[in-house]
Amino acid sequence: MTQFVIIANGPFLAHDIILEAIQGRQIIALDGAADKLLALGINPLVILGDFDSIQPQTQAHWGIRQTYQTLPDNAPSYIGHHGVIIVPAKNQMLTDLVKGIHYCDQHQAQNISILCATGGRDDHHEANKLALQSEYRKQRTILMHSAQQTLRWANNEEVTLQGEIGDYCGFVVQEPGYGDSTGLAYPCIHIPISLCNRLSMPTATLYITGSALIIMPPQLDAHRKLVYSK
Hints:
alpha/beta, Rossmann fold, 12-stranded mixed β-sheet
């Protein structure tokens, strides 16, 4: 089982957050994210996508042979420069993020972290958050680190929230489900939504009946320092 981190091509998080998030994980760069990783001196294990937003100098550096305009629908993976695995994925019925999650699952993902997938274009932002739902697997957790918090999906389960007293958190349950809680400033009893809630102790628990988006305090140390220093 392998731990992966997927780095999308949205607004990039701070360098310190990225450096912490990639520790001990296999790095999957989605399309134009390879440009930004190259500028940071970070080598991914895999570059995946339809390559419609990657810069020519990045293509040359990583040895990407074809981009969207000339890329066949079922082009095979290959080894580019510097040992990077190039995974062409032209299917326009799926987002690059969903393709990246599928790649991780095909390679026995134990858990997946996602960076730089929120903010920016609204269609990308919403599609990427929806991927938390469509690609949810109880046995394999996905955490998506946004600019302010950490997101995940839950389905008929207990979810532990960890942070510091006063940290913002919440959930949105799909009807007819509901959520209950312990350890929150505003206790939840069979309600479908709780936003702008806070931790009343360092560890809280949500009891989700049905399916829900969980909004957690930032789960990376560097992330927390940046958010709460503002």
